[in-house]
Design brief:
The complex is a heterodimer of chains A (292) and B (154). Chain A has 292 residues and is α/β, with parallel strands linked by helices. Chain A folds into 2 domains: 2-142, no CATH class; 157-264, Fumarate Reductase Iron-sulfur Protein, Chain B, domain 2, CATH 1.10.1060. Chain A contains 10 helices and 5 strands; from the N terminus they run H-E-E-H-H-E-H-E-E-H-H-H-H-H-H. Chain A has a 5-stranded mixed beta sheet. In chain A, a hairpin with a 5-residue loop joins strand 1 (24-30) and strand 2 (36-41). By secondary structure, chain B is an alpha/beta fold. Chain B has one domain: Rossmann fold (3-Layer(aba) Sandwich), CATH 3.40.50. Chain B contains 5 helices and 4 strands, in the order E-H-E-H-E-H-E-H-H. Chain B has helices at 17-26, 48-56, 77-95, 112-129, 133-149, and strands at residues 8-13, 35-40, 61-66, 102-106. The chains are: A alpha/beta (292), B alpha/beta (154). The interface between A and B is large, with 46 and 42 residues.
């Protein structure tokens, strides 16, 4: 199945580049050791290096707001991008937020069987029960969308486990995580939603977040980051994947995403025209029980 | 815990809650003096970073006060506050900090007595919760580590 899609993807990518519809395509390739890595193809020859398998974990949407792709989009050029269902949500959110223009991005949506948590390992937790194996947004779909069912598993398994514990135990868990964090900002750099030119962590007057990689500032960083991503996170799990200290950063995001879904009926990255969670409201439907 | 006095930081909007708190003062409504008020242009100004900073720097509780829905001086500022505060309370609970430490109130300029009640009630909540050990614990540990690493005899 995956091989068929890989062949179809290469063919599609080659056609797009030969016809000049896009200047480049951001997809997946392999490095010298055969590991899957992002690959940018500018020629049809390079496009033959595209791969598609369960190790295609990266959310490539992050490249759209980073240089030099961002500069190309500013110049009005067109680019192609290979996305999974979760990544497609990120692309839609970027369009909603006015960061990229819909007609400049050619989205090659892949029907996805889920990706692995580690090389050759089991399916990532977030892939369990995935509702977007067929992307909700694409210019072209690769793979057969018929009869695609969510894979088994609960995407909130680890979150539910933590929620079942006492407040005290939850704090002990997160405290230990805050001690591990070295503030390398890999989670921020890899996140397609963290595209601010000047991040709040870089501000020094006033300095909202302590810069030293010590628990107190680490707590502020992770809480503020999670709050900024509320209603925007596409649950691609990249932050957790790239963390060199093994902090399950995306647990905060997946928890908030599920609570926001329950309380506001909000799901991110579905409709390019929809209102954004944080800048919209419902006068009489938003929860208010906690306010006196 | 008997002599614990909670420290509360209140972010109050210029147009309603701040005036409400002012009214409580001019009409001499009594409430506990454990609250420090920061005047902000609108409750919509109160970013998560302001609240985290307050907690970091020793607040045991935070009150965010805005105009009643529909009364916002900037028309819709308090509606976005409502969403943001919901998110932060959820987040605090998830990481193991009692969400009750973040109180949100709609208090108009004529509700001096309501403001006094909010302060009294928040004080009572914090009396029973005690100091915000979690965040203090993060820095206490830092101090003890610093002591350990200091060369002996220095």
């Amino acid at each position: 199945m995956a091989l068929e899609r890989e062949a179809a993807l290469r063919e599609k990518a080659e056609t797009l580049l030969v016809e000049g519809k896009v200047r480049l395509i951001i997809g997946y390739g392999t490095n010298a050791s055969g590991e899957v890595r992002p690959l940018v193809a500018r020629t049809s020859e390079e496009a033959r290096g595209f791969v598609w398998n369960s190790s295609c974990v990266h959310n490539l949407a992050a490249y759209l707001t980073r240089e030099p792709v961002a500069a190309m989009l500013r110049r009005g050029e067109h680019v192609g991008i290979v996305v999974k269902g979760c990544d497609a949500r990120a692309v839609v959110t970027l369009i909603q937020e006015g960061q990229i223009a819909r007609d400049q991005v050619y989205v090659i949506g892949m029907v996805c069987d889920g990706v692995t948590a580690s090389d050759g390992g089991a399916l990532a937790i977030r892939c369990g029960g995935c509702q977007v194996r067929v992307p909700l947004f694409y210019s072209d779909l690769i793979g057969d969308p018929e009869g695609i069912a969510p894979p088994p598993g609960n995407p909130l398994e680890d979150v539910a486990e933590l929620l079942a514990k006492t407040e005290h135990e939850r704090w002990a868990f997160w405290r230990a995580q805050m001690e591990k964090c070295i503030r390398c900002y890999a989670c921020r750099q890899v996140c397609p939603m963290c595209y601010c030119r000047e991040c709040v962590t870089e501000r020094s007057e006033p300095q909202w977040i302590d810069k030293a990689p010590l628990p107190r500032g680490n707590l502020a960083y992770h809480v503020i980051r999670a709050a900024h991503l509320a209603g925007r996170c596409s649950s691609c799990g990249e932050c957790t994947r790239v963390c060199p200290m093994g902090i399950p950063v995306d647990m905060l995001n997946r928890f908030l995403t599920s609570r926001i879904g329950e309380a506001f009926g909000h799901e991110c990255g579905i409709d390019c025209e929809a209102d954004l969670f944080q800048s919209s409201f419902s006068k009489d439907k938003d929860p208010e029980g906690f306010i006196r | 815990m008997a002599d614990f006095k909670p420290r509360i930081v209140a972010f109050l909007c210029n147009w309603c809650s701040y005036a409400g708190a002012d009214l409580a003062g001019t009409t001499r409504v009594k409430h506990r003096a454990d609250v420090r008020i920061v005047r902000v242009p609108c409750s919509g100004r109160v970013d998560v970073s302001l609240i985290m900073k307050a907690f970091e720097r020793g607040a045991d509780g935070v009150i965010v006060g805005g105009c009643h829905p529909g009364d916002c001086h900037y028309i819709t500022g308090n509606y976005t506050t409502r969403r943001r505060m919901f998110v932060l309370r959820e987040l605090l609970g998830f990481i193991g900090i009692e969400p009750e430490r973040l109180q949100v109130t709609w208090c108009s300029a004529s509700e001096g007595s309501k403001w006094a009640e909010v302060v009294e009630d928040t004080c009572k909540v914090l009396d029973s919760l005690g100091p915000l050990k979690q965040v203090k614990d993060l820095t206490e540990n830092l101090r003890s580590e610093a002591k350990e690493t200091r060369p002996s005899g220095a």
